[in-house]
Specification:
This protein has 240 residues and is of the alpha/beta class. It has seven helices and 15 strands. Strands 7, 8, 9, 10, 11, 12, 13, 14 and 15 form a nine-stranded mixed β-sheet that branches. Strands 1-2-3-4-5-6 form a six-stranded mixed β-sheet, with helices on one face. Helix 3 runs parallel beside helix 4.
């Protein structure tokens, strides 16, 4: 990672860095990680929208791979929104995945949206988990415990801004890193919700030691711990 790229990242410890766009950079293995692309979502909701997220996702990952000179791209589950796509949408998804394979080594981790076959029928070879830089990477739909730090997606964490607006966010604890969802169609799970605390608690992470980093397309914004963000939010609501 060059100096300019490092200045826009947030170190998460252990060689992991939060990047703009919700990507994770694992420096020791030169791996770029993205979670919850949900390709084909537009068709899954009835085909009212064109499959524009395929091209947008591919372009963003191509830029990131070049910027960080990544040797590996890891798709951390829910690569597709569903496996029952039309022939046309299936062809578009396969073309996108093939383009990603041409960029560098591609590792696909299975998620719950890959269906009962865990993606094998559509995406080819998928794995349930991998280890990089001493961290255990898996989608997060099947909670598992180990002595390693877990890196997951699945939860779609976000910071609620009021109304219908929210910003995707990383959750970072000694036990756990949760990536934001890459899909533009998810409002996400409010990081201040009880459900969020329950989900991260399954890995031993606490709200007092789990930090929130909002990720826009161009910047990362550290917000402190979930507990401190909750206190600040309550104070602001009570302010004149």
């Amino acid at each position: 990672m060059n100096a300019a790229a490092r200045a826009l990242s947030v170190s998460l410890g252990g060689g992991a860095h939060a990047l703009a766009g919700g990507l994770l950079w694992i420096e020791p293995s030169a791996s770029l990680v993205v979670a919850d692309l949900h390709l084909g979502y537009e068709e899954a909701i009835g085909g009212a929208l064109p499959l524009w997220s395929l091209d947008e996702s591919l372009a963003a990952l191509e830029r990131a791979r070049a910027a960080y000179d990544a040797r590996e791209l890891i798709l951390l589950g829910d690569v597709v929104h569903g496996v029952r796509l039309s022939d046309g949408a299936t062809a578009r998804v396969l073309t996108t995945v093939q383009r990603l394979r041409q960029l560098c080594t591609l590792t696909i981790v299975a998620g719950n949206h890959e269906g009962r076959t865990r993606g094998a029928g559509l995406l080819g070879e998928c794995v349930e988990e991998i280890e990089r830089a001493g961290m255990l990477l898996h989608h997060g739909d099947r909670t598992r415990l180990s002595g390693a730090r877990h890196v997951i997606g699945h939860l779609h964490p976000s910071v609620a801004l009021g109304g219908e607006q929210s910003v995707p966010a990383f959750l970072v604890a000694p036990e756990l890193i949760v990536l934001p969802a890459a899909t533009p169609y998810s409002r996400g799970l409010n990081v201040l919700s009880r459900d969020c605390r329950t989900e991260i608690g399954a890995y031993g992470a606490r709200s007092t030691s789990t930090h929130v980093i909002a990720a826009t397309a161009t910047h990362c914004y550290p917000f402190g711990s979930i507990a401190s963000l909750a206190r600040a939010t309550r104070a602001l609501r009570g302010a004149p």
